[in-house]
Amino acid sequence: MAKLIVGNWKMNGLGPALAEAQAVAAGLAGSLAGSLGGTLGGSGVRVGLCPPATLIERMARSLSGSPVLVGGQDCRAEASGAFTGDVSAEMLSEAGAVLVILGHSERRAGCGETDALVAAKVEAALRAGLEPIICVGETLAEREAGRAVAVVATQVRGSLPQVLAGRAFSVAYEPVWAIGTGLTPTTAQIEEIHAAVRAEMSAVLGVPGARAPILYGGSVKPANAAEILSVAEVGGALVGGASLKSADFLGIIAGAG
Ligand code: PGA
After folding, report:
1. How far apart, in Å, are the Cα atoms of 244 and each of 10, 23, 81, 83, 177?
2. From 10, 99, 179, mutation site for ligand 1 pocket: most ligand atoms within 8 A of C-beta
3. Which fold has domain 3-12+46-59+90-254?
4. What is the pLDDT of residue 177?
């Protein structure tokens, strides 16, 4: 199955940053005839970028005709209403998004998002025709207490609604302690958690849900991408800081080829 490599720009990027997105698209176009030849499209790599909401429409327009998918970083569960400052899945879709990151640890920790709320947002994303990327991951304290597998399994069970069965989506395993820190788990630790996520997905959704890719996220960079992406059950990467520079992001994509 094609690896999915998604950049999460977080709250970074004004208009001029769109040049980086265009450079990613140009790099992918060039690579069709080069080292990534044959890996795009068919079976190799799907690439997405999730800019701040203010840039989604412009990025989608400037990348139209390119294989780069555009996504949001969050959405409200409701389609519309008196929710000052929030954006609905339908609004993201209208702006040109096809992906949406949900339940990122920065939102779980900083905005009090629970598994139940994340599940409601996933339903909203599907209602609007978006492909959700559902984030899970343990804190350092939870890992040190030997609870990483249990914590992640609980998050998967609570954040993946039944309606996901048979739909396009992915789960991203992002250990909180690896995000933006330069620290990464060992490949054995990644393999252990991804196997647990796969087992939990199968238990919750049955066989159709069990086929969805499981991404790894947390300090992915060009130097470690190929090793991480070759781990069993790693179906792609969710990339924060290193997605802001096209050369780094392209280097990570090359690691999936
Ligand atoms: P990072 O962030 O790559 O900067 O560690 C990953 C993420 O938060 O998705």
Report:
1. 9, 11, 33, 30, 20
2. 179
3. TIM Barrel (3.20.20)
4. 98
